[in-house]
Amino acid sequence: MEATGGLAPYRIDAEIAHSSICTIYRAYEENLDRPVLIKKLHPQMAREEDIRKRFEREAQVCARVKHENIVDIYSYRADGDATFLVMEFVEGENLGDLLKRQGRVEWQVALTMLEGVLQGLSHAHAKGVFHRDIKPDNLLVSKDGRVKITDFGLATIADSNRMTMQDSVVGTPSYLPPEQVSGGKFDHRGDLFSVGVTFYEILSGASPFSGANFSETLKKILTYTPPPLSSLIPDIPQEFDQILAHLMEKQPSKRTATAEAALEDVRKLATQRGVKLSRTTVLDSLHPEDNGSTPKPAVTLPAGQSTIAKNAFPVWAFGITAALVAMMLFWLPTRSQLIGDGLPKLKNSFAELAGRISASVLNGKRNPANANESRRSLVDSEVDNPMGQFEDPPARGPVKTPVNVRITDGQAVVSTAPGMLILTSRPWAMVTIDNVSHGQTPLGAPIELSPGIHNLTLSNSEFPTPFTETINIPPGGSLTLDANLWEIVGTIQVLSVKPWAEIFVDDVSYGLTPRAKPIIVTFGSHLIELRNPNYKLWEETVEFEASNRELNLNVQLEMTN
């Protein structure tokens, strides 16, 4: 457990959570007689600029927004002793945990929760603050039935010019708005899209855009329209479908304009259906077992086909195009004297054409002749070109399906066959690829992946730094990777300390000697202390790096005078 010195005037009551970045405590502010939550950065993490700035930004943002539906931040401290946030303590649970426990939530309760979230967002947006990471885990329900938005660490302030390009695409993949996926500008309407996705999940128990991998998730956000929930759960009013459909419009210009406008729709539905938008409505649903009811199981969403893919450039047309180009390649060598280096140029042009065709599978125009415009509604609307018709033009090009093109004996060969990742690690690690978990090593079988670039993360709870690697899976081939997590950390092995001591690294206690397990630290400078009240303090600052990863300690403490 992390040492809690330097947190006065707060009394630490309990450790709630501990991660490689911070420790969260339930504490008590005695001079103001109130419980608080303290989020304290580990000393080594406080030296990481990105993490420290996120802490600072969360404090700055929450200083602007004070609302009953937003978790309040009381103070922020960053000095030589400690870096921590002091926050309002909300006794309750987040909606992610609630869904795990209950499966899904009754629509009347969800409508009441939605009103609270929209009230908080309306206030934040009026102050020029955009949250950028609305999801069930960031919505708390207190034991008195109040819904509160938390974790403004990724938020932006509309009039701030300090955000860098690396911050332009952030958030949790399944809840990202389409304009952010394609590199466009994020504004308050991005939060509203995330709210729509979140409450679709709260009502159904299933995330509408979650895919088998990161790429599939982004493609679904851009192209897939979830079915109206009233078709899956009969008691949900169609008016609620329309509220969510408005919020989840692909194009920001067609989306609900403001949180205040969405609030009006929610209150209108509540009036029509006689729903009391009060904390009592939420409170009665928190523990259904107390009133004799049972949790509602999550529904299974139908396998979605994107409205664009079904009208896009057909696969057979791609084959015909490839065959035609292959015929041209067979004919052109006899005519090369007319065009000089024409064959290499044509080969390059074909590779470019293949890329365009693969992109058209995602970007294909809808054929108006096949669409019944008079019956088109909010919940089954199609998007003509979600990649290129946002109000704010995307900064980057369209997302393309990985395509491998090669010329062999005058024949054009296009491959999108999946490849295999053969992965081993030392020691064990949890495997995450493109934000999707693939279990723990050693794996029973290779991992099948689509060809192209993927982001691999290996994490072990005892290691402060995850192993990250960008991998390129060849079409139809395999990649073998043996990852050694010990190569990215330093280790402190306390072999012997006489007579005994409590071990501290960067003011964090690692218990008393003797200690058999090594202490694992990040690369960089660390202060190591051995403390025994009857002996002189032993301390040493060590710089750990790739060429100096291990420290073995054999220490005889000196008596105090």
Q: What can you see in these coordinates?
A:
- The chain has 561 residues and is α+β, with helices and mostly antiparallel strands.
- It folds into five domains: 79 residues, Phosphorylase Kinase, domain 1 (2-Layer Sandwich); 190 residues, Transferase(Phosphotransferase) domain 1 (Transferase(Phosphotransferase), domain 1), CATH 1.10.510.10; 78 residues, no CATH class; 69 residues, Carboxypeptidase-like, regulatory domain (Immunoglobulin-like), CATH 2.60.40; 68 residues, Immunoglobulin-like, CATH 2.60.40.
- The chain is 27% helix and 26% strand.
- The strands form eight sheets. Strands 1-2-3-5-4 form a five-stranded antiparallel β-sheet.
- β21 and β22 form a beta hairpin.
- α6 packs antiparallel against α8, α8 runs antiparallel to α9 and α11 packs antiparallel against α13.
Task: Give a brief description.
The protein is an alpha+beta fold and about 550 residues long.
Count of helix runs: 13
Estimated structural class: alpha+beta
Strand order of the largest sheet: 1-2-3-5-4
Could you give me the name of the CATH homologous superfamily of the largest domain? Transferase(Phosphotransferase) domain 1
Summed up, the domain count is 5
Radius of gyration: 28 Å
Mean pLDDT: 77
